[in-house]
């Protein structure tokens, strides 16, 4: 009896998973698995993995682990179902497409992190921290300074790179003040996402809308004021709770290592090449980033082969001035190695991105993203649908959400397309896991800027989200 029961149970599970009666084709290349057992299990696996990610600071499990496993489980189930229907090639191609998306993001991030690590090794952030502290800036002033810089740099340098750069400064200035670091990181994430929303280069989603030809280059700047409101509302609220005290000045004089400003110049050149690769050549931005990494490697080679002569010259000057401190410092100088900078990249964050991109890609391939977007744009008022896109992008990555909207291509006015561009760009600020900038900073400020720390200020960020939408509906009413 028990053996028969087990056989019946296995037969039932097999019927649920692989019966063609539960599948519907969405076309020649894809099966609709949204009402199939595989689809339901994929949702459960994804939600459970995200719960573990959100509990990172409590259970001390690195966020990459659950999403890596979830990605394997989801695509493993998809592959099995498609193999049963003789469509394994279609599933393989879909996975390769997601893998390509991740590869571009991985290399882009890796180059940005390498440059930031190189600037840190050349003592730039220590020098900047010393300058800020000795200038007498209070913590509240530093909170505003880093936020405003993030808002105005991200339209050019993209929100992810900007957030990483500002976080490095915050970590140096904040020192042991974890509360300040956490709140300043939240402010930078909101500012970088808001700043990226009014520029075609500021975020991947704005690039997608611009590349699709839906909005012209200059039309994005209509979102400048709504984006500023999105940043300012939570920043004003949070700044009230920042102590107006000054970090202790110690008159520390930080000596930049040789080539520090050249590294900064190369980083700027790399960003320009990334933007140019896309806007002028029609190539992925990662092409310019990887070329920039090559330039950094060449400069590292130059620093290594000229190190001996440079040290000899500086040692002679120090001996002549009888500067024992400088002589001691010169004795600790080691050659610059770019691969040491690559090794110090936040690999947990990079692997987390893999898991998220592949998991969400799997859910999209199953049919859930198109199902949700179709329901929103055919059954809801289009304004409410576009507002919901922003909320959805706080939970699911905004790239596949925007991709689903662009794929459906609903009939909307330019004002509505600007609205969905705004909400998809800034909606990710509602949660730390809702944007690439937030996820990257969770790795960079590990244990300080966390999901829970960000969640405490979600109501203030939500007020900024609502205010930015209302300002856009009022200020750009002629575009609807």
From TrEMBL:
UniProt key word Transferase: no
Transmembrane segments: 34-54, 66-83, 99-116, 137-153, 180-201, 221-243, 259-280, 286-305, 351-371, 383-405, 417-437, 457-475
Keyword Signal found: yes
Membrane topology designation: Multi-pass membrane protein
Superkingdom to which the source organism belongs: Bacteria
Family named by the database record: Belongs to the NhaD Na(+)/H(+) (TC 2.A.62) antiporter family.
Protein known as: Sodium:proton antiporter NhaD
Source organism of the structure: Motilimonas cestriensis
């Amino acid at each position: 009896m028990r053996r028969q029961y087990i056989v019946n149970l296995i037969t039932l599970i097999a019927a649920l998973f692989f019966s063609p009666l539960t599948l519907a084709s969405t076309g020649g290349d894809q099966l609709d698995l949204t009402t199939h057992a595989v689809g339901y299990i994929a949702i459960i696996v994804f939600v459970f993995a995200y719960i573990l990610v959100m509990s990172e600071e409590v259970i001390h499990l690195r966020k990459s682990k659950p999403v890596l496993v979830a990605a394997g489980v989801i695509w493993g189930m998809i592959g099995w179902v498609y193999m049963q229907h003789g469509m394994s090639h279609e599933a393989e191609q879909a996975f390769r497409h997601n893998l390509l998306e991740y590869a571009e993001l991985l290399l882009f991030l890796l180059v940005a992190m390498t440059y930031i690590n190189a600037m840190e090794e050349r003592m730039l952030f220590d020098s900047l921290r010393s300058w800020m502290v000795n200038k007498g800036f209070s913590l509240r002033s530093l909170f505003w300074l880093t936020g405003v810089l993030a808002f105005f740099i991200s339209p050019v340098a993209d929100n992810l790179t900007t957030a990483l750069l500002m976080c490095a400064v915050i970590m140096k200035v904040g020192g042991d003040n974890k509360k300040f670091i956490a709140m300043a990181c939240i402010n930078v994430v909101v500012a970088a996402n808001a700043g990226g929303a009014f520029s075609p280069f500021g975020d991947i989603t704005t690039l997608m809308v611009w590349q699709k030809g839906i909005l012209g280059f200059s039309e994005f700047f209509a979102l400048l004021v709504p984006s500023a409101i999105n940043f300012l509302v939570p920043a004003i609220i949070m700044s009230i709770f920042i102590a107006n005290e000054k970090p202790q000045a110690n008159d520390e004089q930080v000596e930049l290592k040789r080539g520090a400003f050249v590294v900064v110049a190369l980083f700027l050149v790399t960003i320009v090449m990334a933007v140019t690769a896309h806007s002028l050549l029609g190539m992925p931005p990662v092409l310019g980033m990887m070329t920039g990494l090559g330039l950094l490697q060449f400069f590292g080679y130059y620093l290594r082969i000229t190190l001996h002569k440079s040290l000899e010259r500086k040692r002679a000057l120090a001996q002549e001035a009888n500067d024992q401190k400088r002589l001691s410092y010169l004795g600790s100088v080691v050659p610059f190695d770019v691969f040491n900078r690559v090794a110090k990249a936040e690999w947990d964050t990079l692997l987390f991105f893999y898991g998220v991109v592949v998991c969400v890609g799997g859910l999209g391939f199953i049919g859930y993203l198109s199902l949700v977007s179709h329901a929103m744009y055919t059954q809801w008022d289009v304004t409410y649908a576009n507002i919901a896109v922003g909320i959805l992008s706080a939970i699911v990555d905004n790239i596949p959400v925007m991709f689903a909207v662009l794929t459906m291509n609903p009939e909307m006015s330019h004002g509505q397309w600007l609205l969905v561009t705004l909400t998809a760009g800034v909606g990710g600020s509602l949660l730390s896991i809702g944007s690439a900038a937030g996820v990257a900073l969770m790795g960079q400020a590990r244990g300080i800027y966390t999901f829970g720390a960000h969640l405490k200020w979600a109501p203030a960020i939500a007020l900024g989200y609502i205010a930015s939408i209302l300002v856009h509906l009022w200020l750009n009413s002629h575009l609807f």
